[in-house]
Amino acid sequence: MSPFQHGEVFVTDDGAETDLDLGHYERFIDENLSKYSTVTTGRIYSEVLDRERKGDFLGGTIQVVPHITNAIKAKIELAATAAKAEILVIEIGGTVGDIEGEPFLEALRQMRMEKGKENVISVHLTLLPYLAASNELKTKPTQLSVREMLRSGVQPDVILCRADKDIPKELLEKIARFCNVEPAAVIPAPTVASIYEVPLTLQAHGITKVLEHKMQLKEVNPKLTEWRKMVENIAAAETEVTIGLCGKYNHLDDAYLSVLESVKSAAFALKHRAKIVWIDTEKIEQDDAESWKKLKSCQGLCVPGGFGKRGTEGKILVAKYAREKKVPYLGLCLGAQIMGIEFARNVCKLQDATSEEFDPKAKHQIVHFLADQSEARAKGGTMRLGAWPCIVKKGSKAHKAYGAINISERHRHRYEFNNAYREVLEQHGFMISGTSPDGGLVEIVEVEKHPFMVGSQFHPEFKSRPNRPHPLFAAFLEAIVAQES
Question: What is the pTM of this model?
Fold first, then answer.
């Protein structure tokens, strides 16, 4: 999945590699989702064709209706059953009118007929563009998109109106009139200062009462006290901390979306605001003066995950700078491996230390491809994915952060720390502070006698929540704030 097209790859506990939208849903509803929570058009068609080749359809003609639509409905039923859900929120991605979305809209139409309109509610999200020249919001695109939905046999029950300006009451009434929707069910979704204000805005406009009525639910009273407190902390945060995000997909926020949200949430919890400074590690290794100036302006440095050799020498220079200058550093997956390589080169004096990923013929491969996987190097089948247990070493910074010994974290990587170098690294002050239960896999590393230089082989950003920052991100920000106070 290319970061330029898909953004980050979000990983669930059960190892599903999904679109970044699933990460948003986990952060907002605070539920761990699964492989059943995401389905693509390609998977639907592939599975239907596999069944056809096995003879499941007895040689009958395969059609979009009913075979593809039945497969879509089956996936929805499976997701609900697997999660034991009372209410299932289903996003049909894309734009109404897209050819690839038509089977999904047809599946929605069928489910409304089969399950009853009180059990299947359609919420249509639409945009009201603002024309600056005439200082007005236009409702015509909304009317046309609803008309397109009606052509598919689906009548929206609720319309959420996105807009960069306040929507006058008369425009909401106009949308209700022309789209055949109750006025109370046309709900503004204005642009707000923080994405986490959105649920509060929708609630203020009565969305739960509308859903309560439409779905014949008992009285719904969302518990929003903690969420409101979080939003208040965000609004009140004034003191700024500067965090350098050091990677090769600079200014591509979506590629590191969960990392960005984790850093921001940890800062907000301390009533600080994180200013993200993008550090292009390719330019660092080219000794670009402006890039080094930006790096040295940062109060903390984060090196996120990634694949491939490009920009890695720059990341090693970032780790060296952080270690020598005592700048708080958090390494995620590749960022942890970079820590080990830099330490091996400059402290243990293994000058050609590297990763097998970067140089398969190198003498000192601090990070390598596991021996028991080396016969199956197909890129799609060799990654350690999903939640794995970890034992945290007492007395370590990781143990202080977690307050626990037994933890579970999500992984997405192909290379591991080479156990042949653990002894020499630890002798020089490179602590292995977290391992797999059998001790065979390195999970967390730390540089001793450093304010905070910690790396995790896993991806803690996938489990961070806006109102409950992940322990490693929280400890990282605490170390930065402590240095500045």
Answer: 0.91
